[in-house]
Design goal:
186 residues, globular
């Protein structure tokens, strides 16, 4: 069951300062990270977006509260269809998989089967309906996961070649950055 207090708090428009306060409240056991994850799938897209935004702030500012629910987040990740919430989801996953992630997070990914996540993220990357901001984080996720899935590198390079002319200048700049990251891993 959804936490009613949390739901009431995010029914109204949020500003960054309120999001940070709600993230701090979430980190103080007033409601669970699982509630935020569940609420990010709420039928009203704005509420789902706000919950995902708070979730991102919990991850970045209070990771120790996020960690017990990391596997639940990963299980729900492929099901996120609210594009506004998805932007926060892919950012969280990009941060979770980066090389300087916390030791606890790296331990989770050492044993977690990320194959399905790779498939889902590649599908979003080539989907014309997915906004460029989401695709940018998808590039990060896939580049980060080349450590675990060596085959991803070649596929990612080919996909970037294919998409570079179809997307914006900002996307092209991100592609350049990812190419450098992949070159360092040789």
């Amino acid at each position: 069951m959804l936490n009613q207090t949390l739901l009431e708090n995010i029914k109204t428009t949020l500003q960054k300062s309120k999001v940070e306060k709600l993230a701090a409240i979430a980190s103080a056991d007033s409601f669970s990270v699982k509630d935020l994850i569940d609420l990010s799938f709420y039928h009203e897209e704005q509420i789902g977006f706000r919950a995902a935004w708070i979730l991102e702030n919990v991850f970045t500012k209070h990771e120790q509260r996020f960690l017990p629910h990391a596997l639940y987040f990963l299980e729900k990740f492929p099901q996120q269809s609210n594009l506004s919430a998805l932007r926060h989801y892919v950012k969280i996953l990009a941060l979770m998989t980066r090389k300087n992630a916390s030791t606890a997070m790296r331990k989770i990914f050492a044993v977690y089967d990320t194959g399905y996540l790779v498939e889902v993220v590649f599908a979003w990357l080539i989907d014309d309906k997915i906004p460029v901001a989401i695709k940018s984080h998808c590039l990060n996720i896939l580049a980060n996961l080349t450590v675990k899935h060596s085959w991803v590198k070649e596929e990612l390079l080919q996909t970037m070649d294919f998409l570079a002319d179809k997307e914006s200048i900002a996307f092209f700049a991100k592609v350049k950055q990812i190419r450098k990251q992949l070159a360092v891993r040789n």
